[in-house]
Design brief:
Chain A is α/β, with parallel strands linked by helices. Chain A is about 35% helix and about 20% strand.
Chain lengths: ~260, ~260
């Protein structure tokens, strides 16, 4: 019989928002020293993609030397079937991934950009950790949805994040109508995102379809040099249309009253 | 006729989450170097309370010397009538506060804790800035709502922040029922907060009232040494009740399926 082991802690480790963008920003622009120090101390990781996890750890190492060399880090990817399901909340059995935690190792959960388990598939790991009595500690870093909300000036006391809108034009139109009705009825801000190459099409649909007095915001490339946050009533966007949001830059959209 | 002045930029400057708590945490635990450097460079501020704004700037000064001494900082409070309205989204005329921006000064907007303009009254300033063509730049820092959401393991792809629940027992019961119905119907996580001294009463009401399979989370003292995130189905909380959330520690609650 082996002695009972105290389980490790699951750390939610945020990453910068420059993933897939043309520019890389200094980690110290968006991650507090304590987040970098915690990340450097860990040796076990759960991620969406091992290659980008290693690239991130290399950037951390340049600021805080890693406790174990990159080749010795234990990096486990989320099952591919899971993180390809995109928008849907997926309940899958993440318990096998908890093995290092149950053996007493602290583990870092990272996503491709920003805060893990928000608008990405890592939340099942966190849920399984709670069920197994494993402590979960979120570290501070950039969260594009909340930066966008704050910078929009729309109601930050009541808001809903809706994930992605449907891709088909008709379904999308219907969904935009629903979200606007909700914001007009309750005042609550409605946030959503889009795959970057469809940013321009979504923006145009919103400007065309929303009521003139509805406020429409978009926040592109947050924390990057090219960051831009716009928020005006739709009639202002119709009168003086801005350049469409760039096709390769993550953008958060919001509507409010 | 005076020459046209390029307006300044409105920076949303996050503050640590230790406001009003027993412990003060190092700013470097929760604020990236770039946020501290930006804050140190500013000389004009809009805040809820000048005293706590100065206390914050003193902490920043110890890490990054301020561009102007504390006594020379221009600090303007939001109108008291506004920030006493608590939960309601308030549309008031914030244009007079934009004067330094229109004169070309960069201005920092801060709240008592966390990200300004999220769950606090600063959003009218941001809205007025957009209407006046002033650039708005959000800086990275801690956001308790999102840290709580990520650490709960509940659905992070669809979620609603609902502000405060009603104070009266009957209205609160009714509201809890509505929020649970929403999460059971759509799967979306429902987040809300409470004045700390009512944390225990709200927790007990939730454990008593929610359905056994509904998952209930609470995240207390996030980013502090005493941080604790719990999330389990309600039947588990009934079988093994945890200590109630402490009465002086900010707590975010969430329910999900």
């Amino acid at each position: 019989m082996t002695a009972a082991t105290t389980p490790g802690t699951l750390y939610l480790v945020p990453t910068p928002l420059d993933f897939g963008c043309d520019e890389a920003i200094p980690l110290t622009d968006v991650l507090p020293q304590a987040t970098l120090a915690h990340a450097a101390r860990l040796t076990h990781w759960i991620c969406e993609n091992a290659k980008s996890c290693r690239a991130y750890l290399k950037r951390v190492d340049a600021l805080h030397p890693l406790a174990a060399p990159l080749q010795a880090q234990q990096i486990t990817e989320l099952p591919h079937a899971v993180h390809k399901q995109g928008d849907r909340a997926v309940h899958w059995d993440a318990r096998p991934l908890l093995a290092p935690l149950l053996q007493g190792h602290d583990v870092g959960l990272v996503s491709e950009a920003g805060m893990p388990a928000v608008a990405d598939p890592g939340s099942a790991v966190v849920r399984a950790a709670h069920d197994a009595g494993i402590a979960v500690v979120p570290l501070v870093g950039p969260v594009s949805i909340l930066l966008a909300l704050a910078a929009s000036g729309l109601d930050g006391q009541h808001f809903t994040f809706n994930g992605y809108l449907p891709q088909g034009a008709n379904e999308r139109e219907q969904r935009i109508r629903e979200l606007e009705a909700r914001t007009l009825r309750h005042g609550a801000t409605q946030l959503f995102i889009e795959t970057p190459y469809r940013n321009a099409a979504l923006w145009q649909a919103l400007v065309r379809q929303l009521q003139p007095a509805t406020r429409l915001a978009r926040a592109s490339g947050l924390t990057l040099a090219q960051a831009q946050v716009l928020c005006k009533p739709v009639h202002a966007w119709r009168t003086a249309p801005p350049a469409p949001p760039p096709p390769h830059v993550p953008t958060v959209f919001a509507i409010g009253s």
